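Dear Dr. H.,

I hope your travels went smoothly. While you were away I took the liberty of generating a structure for the chain from your last submission, since the lab meeting agenda had it listed for discussion. I wanted you to have the full record in hand beforehand rather than looking at slides cold. The sequence, exactly as received, is reproduced here:
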Amino acid sequence: MRILLVEDNHRLSNSLKMNLEHEGYSVDTAYDGQEGQDFAELTPYDLIILDILLPIKDGLEVCRNLRHRRMQTPILLLTARDSVDDRVQGLDCGADDYLVKPFAMQELLARLRALLRRQQSYQPGRLEMGSLIVDPTTHSVERAGKPIELTPKEFALLEYLLYHRNQVVTREMIEQHIWNYDFECESNVIDVYIRRLRRKIDDPFAIKLLTTVRGIGYRLTPSPEG
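The corresponding predicted structure, in token form, is as follows:
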């Protein structure tokens, strides 16, 4: 899942980016409100983490502007302000959640998962397709009771395909949601990761789940297995 992080404290931003990427998220960073709004209007993010006290344009104004443009991307506000009035103001401007600094990384990750689940295409709890079971909370994967080890990027790719099961997912869609602006995507990198994923979740099993739609992209389809 691709996240936009708008935070002017470079040390905090770098720490959050590192932790989020370790969890398999793709993260773009902006350091002022105008830059953050520009990023959000140009790229289809799955979620936005938005600090309130930002240079040029504060987070509340950015949030209002994005909602005025009918952008429905979930927004989590970060702030050192912890009064009830501050929280109400943040939620009234269109934010979906509000987290007060300092916070535990575990709580931020739990709130991100909850916000993603609220979107129509996301489902709570474990993701299952036949004997394939994926747990976004623990990043564990198994098929037919056999644990499967995936890298964070492989896990993110599988999770994205599961959220879009039965749909043809193009290379462009995968690139937009799994990689960030800093990544120089080579022409065959998506194919490489698909091959790695297929070797782990499909090759050892008789029934295949991941199919290639020639010239278009890929599709994860359910099987008749139990």
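Two observations you may find useful: The two ends are 28 Å apart (CA to CA). The CA atoms of residues 37 and 62 lie 6 Å apart.

With kind regards,
E. W.
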